[in-house]
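Hi team,

As requested, here is the filled-out complex form for the S-adenosylmethionine run. I kept the field names the same as last time so the parser does not choke. Let me know if anything looks off before we queue the next batch.

— J.
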Amino acid sequence: MGRSDARPRNPSNQGHGYHLPVMADEIAELMVVDPDGRYLDATLGGGGHAGRILEKLSPKGGLIGLDRDMEAVERNKLAFENEPRMRVERAEFSRLAEFCPPGSLSGALFDLGVSSRQLDAKERGFSFVPGTALDMRMGSEGPAASDLISGWDEWELASILRRNSDIDEAKRLARTILEAVEAGEEMTSDLIRKAVDKLPGMRDENRNSMLARVFQAIRMEVNDEMGQVQTGMRAAVAALKTGGRLCVLSYHSVEDRKVKETLAEFEKDCICAPNLPVCMCGGNNRSIRKVLRKPGLPSDAERERNPRARSAKLRVVEKI
Ligand SMILES: C[S@@+](CC[C@H](N)C(=O)[O-])C[C@H]1O[C@@H](n2cnc3c(N)ncnc32)[C@H](O)[C@@H]1O
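And here is what came back:
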């Protein structure tokens, strides 16, 4: 990344219309500890956070941005074409070690889940508006939701609904969905909608929230989201230099639980097997400390302005 004062085409408004970045000022403030450092935006999306981070960097600083979605990558390549401090790559963040050697980063950001653009683009199959084909892939690789659903048995689908979205009625819902698949119903959002409608006691005011949770559970499986979070965050901790910061934004409880569990691996002093009577590891294995003792939450004004921000939780840690 070369020296330059060049600014992105649309610096801090980058992303508007495509995706409104959540807690962008707070994140740039907490993450950019060294304006000359090298940073990672693991989830570029509309490039809103990236623009804000670049504003904080000196001409010597650098930012590498990843996304698994080709549309997001092309958008960012174009938006930052005159920004020599920025490098944009299409990759899953589980592969970030290929771009960020150990101890090279002053900061890394993971803004998890899907962008507003992905949700809004009907052809991507993330939304439950009527007649949407069940695709849900963030990248173009791997099987679409419809292919996976037809291969799952009732037990697998029920455990996915339970594991990814804490759905109590998972077993009944899985059976109804798979009965419709076997009956040859078209693999669209309507199939899921009808299955949700058949749940006993389903009321109009609960329908959309249940549909969102079913879609979320299937989407997480299609994209191996929890596997990606675990591998990506472990790689990010390895890529941070001492004093470097990792910021992670999650949007629902299952996602946040995985973030917390993965961070906890690096917060342990002792990593001996629990059945060892005495510590053999030296007891000084902790490699991160919390920067925010409790997860950061968006301001009331931001929650008002951006409904997507309402469920956001920001965790920030520092490599020690
Ligand atoms: C919430 S949006 C990020 C929005 C972004 N921070 C902004 O300011 O516009 C999440 C983005 O991460 C991408 N993504 C999700 N999981 C990914 C993964 N495992 N590897 C790379 N990109 C991923 C999605 O394709 C999506 O574009």
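Two things worth flagging: The chain has two domains: 24-117+225-319, 140-222. The CA atoms of residues 141 and 220 lie 15 Å apart.

Thanks,
J.
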